[in-house]
Amino acid sequence: MGRTKGAIARGAVALLCVLIAGTSSLRADTTSERSSSILIFPKVMAITDGIHPTVDTVIQISNTSNSMVYAHCVYLNGAPLDPRFPPGAQNPPQCQEVDFTIFLTKQQPTHWVVSTGRRVEPSPTCNLNFSACDGAGIDPGAIPPMGDYFTGELRCVEVDSSGAPINGNHLKGEATIVVPDGDASKYNAVGLMGLNTGASSNNSDSTLCVGGGLSGDCPTGAEYNACPQTLILNQYAADASNPVIDELGGPNSAVRTELTLVPCTQDFENQVPGRGIVQFLIINEFEQLFSTSTTVTCWGNLDLSSRLYASFNAIFNEDFLGSRFAQTRMTPADPTQSGFVGVAEEFHVVPPGSPNFTRAAANLHGEGQRPSGDIIRLQGGF
Amino acid sequence: MRPGARPAGSRRISVIHALAVVGLLAGAAQVARADVASDQAAAILVFPKLRVDTKNVAGQGRVDTLIRVSNTSAQAISMRCFYADATPVCSNGTGSCLAPGACTGVCVPQWQETDFVVNITARQPIAWLASQGAAGCEESPVPGMPCFPLTTNGGRIGPNGQTNNGSRIPPAPEDPFIGELKCIAVDRNDVPVERNDLKGEVQITRVEVPQASGVDVETYNAIGIPSIPGTNNGDNTLILGGNVCAGGAKAGSICAAAADCPGGSCISAAEYSSCPNILILDHFFDGATDPISGETVTTDLTLVPCSEDFLNQAPLTTPVQFLVFNEFEQRFSTSRRITCFQEFRISDIDTHTPTKSIFSAAVNGTLTGQTRMRGVADQDTGHGHTLLGVAEEFRGGRSSAAFNLHFTGSRPQSDFVYLP
Q: B141 near B129, Cβ under 8 Å?
């Protein structure tokens, strides 16, 4: 009898483990190719001031469901307070938010240009003789323009018709960064899927619980998938040459990488920017390890080849790394700090220092789940 | 009590243990429901599109592809990779089918596989050019090209004695070349292993002719298919997703739920995660004017099947249904049969007159659209009909940007990869 009870206990423990495992499996990582309830576009550029090189971004968002979908979107401008000078401790990011709401009908795609936004007005005619029909289609609502100097993120949260957050997982999106000569790079928005673990999956308040467990801010636990514990980037060592250009176009090309990181935690209600220390672990082709760290507040766009922060950037340089390629793993410094999501953009320069370059963006890889979770605090009712 | 019969208490213990085991398996299956993804490490990497044209045969500039793969774990790993050469061949040998108008005969598609093995040390990033392949750096024929740096012949080994010994990558089988690459995590005996530790990227670079200053680069992530812990039997038939009836009148048949298996149960047959049921592409309609640059935008789409028979060289044909929505929520659809590998401009899918295509801005009346793609399933239990792919957006025919497609859903049919 004692053996039977012991067996029952062991079986129960095993099943409990399964249930726990099953629960944690629901909190999979972020996604860049599944419809989600929160979309994060980490790198949005709209610089049209005539002083700096012009660059703009096309945002595309689609409703993947057969029902009407609403989304509350927030632009967060991470440009330095004085854009004429480089960002730094004396020139911190503005962290200015602007928000708006869009609605999309069944399976509707929409788009807008960040610098000009999108007005609600009669559609232009797009036909065989006229294809410059930006704005044609059912307007998703008024979208504010973000010129002259916007460098930051866009975050959209699926809500119901009353504006309350829901876990619909009906949104997908892409950002295309374009310069006037047509050169472009494109990446998929990072998605946080809403959890559907029961009636209390999402309490629809303005505090969005991204991963993590029960807490005072999250009395019912996680409402959305956790941000990844580790981000992984495969990159060219800074200033390394592109071997294809070396092979087919001549020597002396150079590649630089911009890494854009945004904290998962953001408090749009109290205007408290997300902040965290990122630990970098860099592995070269010889399996040698190096590490460094930096602090990201609000929005960080790190040029890994810039001489601006020599002590930070030297470690990414080909001269130091000794190999053309490297793998970089990024983790928050400790579990209590904000997690991050991001995107990488490469600039291939021919020859080094010349204005001729081409750009290509790629989504980062994610690994693991943040144990302590993150919180996005939206603006409350007025 | 019959001789040999176990006491009731013992049976109860067995049942409890069995329940626990079933629970564990179910839990494992649930834990293993990691989806196919291009932003997480996996056991199978699919690179849907590689392109080589170093001599500008196609007249679009000189093109080569850089493939980058990393081991994300702290243990060494091996991978077995397969190039699928889909370069069409001109029936009368008059010219390349990739060069417009060069072939006066018929362009016949081919699907030829070439495979190789690569050993990657802990957390090591490696890379190679599709046109050149790779070998140990000490024997690399072209200085400065990507190679394997850790070899005993080269006198350099990793911190824990790990090396890339035994790795050699052949160049793409021909130039010009277009095709797919698939890499599978294996052990040192080429046996598939349950290790979701591989990540990869593709970079296609095009250098304009004759001016080398005109360069275009596009990048996309390899699509990762994760393995399911505790399910891989290590044979050369890889089962991707799917369920079968266990027991009952329909034992062995495909099922979606227990109700499909009278007298039995519906269990997972998968060793790897299921390929997606539907692919979703957000795109500019072909011919649209980019609102920022004023350039004309076109989109190329590459689709490859999840199921592949590298053993018998048997390409699979799949009907694909395309469902298109514009920004007015107006809906169009078309379909096309795809065999093995297909790359096409989206406005060529349904017509030879692009301006009259349902993928044309002129027809749709809006700049952008959403297209959902579904490979049509059948009752074939030896192959599935799901697809993977990648899209490329061109502005003015010069600048391009590649990006990964979105996915949704899974299906009860398995896909199979048969290895030689």
A: no
Peptide bond before B210: cis, by omega within 30 degrees of 0?
Answer: yes
Which residues from chain B sit within 8 angstroms of residue A62, using beta carbons?
280, 282, 370
Query: For residues B349 and B322, is the Cβ–Cβ distance under 8 A?
Result: yes
Contact (Cβ atoms closer than 8 angstroms) between residue B387 and residue B306? yes
pLDDT, tens digit, for every residue of A15-72? 333 333 333 333 346 789 999 999 999 999 999 999 999 999 999 999 999 999 999 9
Burial of A92: CB neighbours in 10 Å, binned 0-12, 13-18, 19+? middle
**Segment A289-310, tens digit of pLDDT:** 999 999 999 999 999 876 556 6
Residues 317-376 of A with CB under 8 A from B: 323-327, 329, 346, 348, 350, 354, 356, 358-367
Query: Quick check: B109 and B304 in contact, CB under 8 A?
Result: no
Distance separating alpha carbons of residues B172 and A213, to the nearest angstrom: 50
A376 near A217, Cβ under 8 Å? no
The alpha-carbon radius of gyration of chain A (Å, integer) is 23
Paired with A348 in beta bridges are A255, A358
For every residue of B144-172, DSSP letters joined together read TS--B--BTTTTB--TTS---TT--BPPP
B59: left (phi over 0), alpha (psi -120 to 50) or beta: left
Interatomic CA distance for residues B7 and B260, integer angstroms: 36
Write out the two tokens for B188. Answer: 């040192």
Count how many residues are written for chain A: 382
Which chain B residue has its CA at the smallest distance from A9's CA? B16
In chain A, which residues have their Cβ closer than 8 Å to the Cβ of B20? Answer: 10-11, 14-15
> Is the separation of the CB atoms in B178 and B51 below 8 Å?
yes
Alpha carbon separation from A126 to A123, A130, A134, A182, B333 (Å, rounded): 9, 6, 9, 21, 20
Helix axes A2-26, B8-31, angle to 10 degrees: 10
- A373, A259 Cβ separation under 8 angstroms: no
Question: pTM, whole model, 2 decimals?
Answer: 0.90
CB within 8 Å of chain A, chain B residues 63-82: 63-66, 68, 70, 72
**What does the DSSP assignment read for A23-49?**
HHHHS---BSSB-BSEEEEEEEEEE-S
The distance from CA B68 to its chain's CA centroid, rounded to whole angstroms, is 15
ipTM value, please give it. Answer: 0.88
Q: How many CB atoms lie within 10 A of CB A281?
A: 17
Contacts of residue B296, defined as CB under 8 A and 6 or more positions apart, other chains included, come to A131, B287, B288, B289, B290, B395, B396, B397
C-alpha–C-alpha distance, residues B311 and B43, integer Å: 20
Cis omega (within 30 of 0) for bond into B176? yes
Phi then psi for residue A52, to 5 deg, are -95, 160
DSSP lists the bridge partners of residue B225 as B44
Rounded Cα distance between B268 and B248, Å, is 16
Kindly report whether the peptide bond that precedes residue A148 is cis, defined as omega within 30 degrees of 0: yes
Whole-number Cα distances in Å, A233 to A344, B68, B121? 8, 11, 17
Q: Which residues lie below 8 Å from residue B357, measured CB to CB, with a gap of 6+?
A: B286, B346, B347, B348, B349, B350, B351, B363
**Residue B327: HSE in the Cβ half-sphere, 13 Å Cα cutoff:** 28
Residue B301, strand partner residues: B344, B391
